[in-house]
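User: Please fill in residues for this 173-position structure.
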């Protein structure tokens, strides 16, 4: 190969390398757990995410959160600094289910909440486990720190146990 061909290959390789480095990358958002409970008034069987970005929207969670303490924790949030998301696992036939949020990430205008939906252990014959025949509806509420980039229309994706289970759009003022 001559020098001109080698230089052309090097320039093309550098251009491709730089172009790949400029692509948007997923970033971890700062978040904190507010509360989680095994009981809520969320009646659907499918999981969902509710987003609260203003004090006025905080009352929308009232119909779902069962404990007054959970409601007061949400209403005390500084919505200039944080937005609140509530992850509901859906209605379950027994006790022993729960939600655990692992991470929250931003990729462009998509906010993905990574969660684990925990299920009761299946007992072996003769084994006694603490699961009762009571309808439950577990949830997990967290606050996410707003950044200058977290303004506008976003798609919220719930990824539970490695699978996307729902997505919804929400405007963050």
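Assistant: Residues filled in for all 173 positions:
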């Amino acid at each position: 190969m001559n020098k001109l061909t080698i230089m052309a290959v090097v320039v093309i390789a550098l251009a491709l390398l730089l172009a790949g480095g400029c692509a948007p990358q997923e970033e971890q958002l700062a978040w904190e757990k507010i509360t989680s409970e095994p009981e809520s008034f969320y009646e659907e069987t499918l999981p969902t995410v509710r987003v609260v970005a203003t004090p006025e929207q905080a009352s929308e969670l009232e119909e779902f959160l069962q404990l007054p303490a959970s409601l007061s924790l949400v209403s005390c949030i500084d919505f200039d600094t944080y937005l609140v998301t509530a992850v509901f696992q859906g209605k379950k036939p027994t006790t022993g289910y729960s939600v655990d949020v692992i991470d929250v990430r931003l990729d462009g205008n998509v906010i993905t909440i990574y969660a684990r939906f925990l299920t009761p252990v299946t007992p072996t014959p003769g084994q006694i486990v603490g699961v009762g025949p009571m309808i439950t509806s577990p949830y997990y509420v967290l606050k996410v720190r707003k950044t200058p980039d977290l303004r506008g229309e976003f798609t919220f994706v719930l990824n539970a146990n490695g699978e996307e289970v729902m997505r919804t759009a929400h405007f963050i003022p």
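For context: The two ends are 57 Å apart (CA to CA).
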